[in-house]
Design brief:
The chain is α+β, with helices and mostly antiparallel strands and 155 residues long. It is built from four helices and seven strands, in the order αββααβββββα. Helix content is 18%, strand content 25%.
Amino acid sequence: MENSIDAGATQIRVAVEDGGRKLISITDDGSGWMPRTWMPAFESHATSKIRQADDLQNISTLGFRGEALASIASIAQVRAVSRTRESDQAYCIEIDCGDKRPVSPCSGDFGTTIQVRDIFYRRRPGASSCGQPTPSWDTSVSSSYALRVGRTEVA
């Protein structure tokens, strides 16, 4: 969600199923990603926020998660679709527990959608589970987060 705000989104939709184990989906109407930035975004230790050491002192964005996308994509099925205002089509990437398919053209509206499905579905038998989500978690996570962010311009 922080990256959505950094991208100038005014609408952010969050969908969660089964406490996030089945689905976490974030859709925004922000500026979108150019196709050349997709593969690096899913690499370990990737960030577009730091180009030189001095940049560490001047981070002015919310979405500073250099490891998040790669970590999530290593344990789940991830599909990301994005379209910039300058593009006549969207592009998508699909990753299944670290196995990346090439970036390809697809249909999609302006902005970005990232869907995380079936987190930990390949975990080995006998591995501990994530615990059970509470019944209200699915519906309350996005509203409580929005209150903490305090951005009135984002719905």
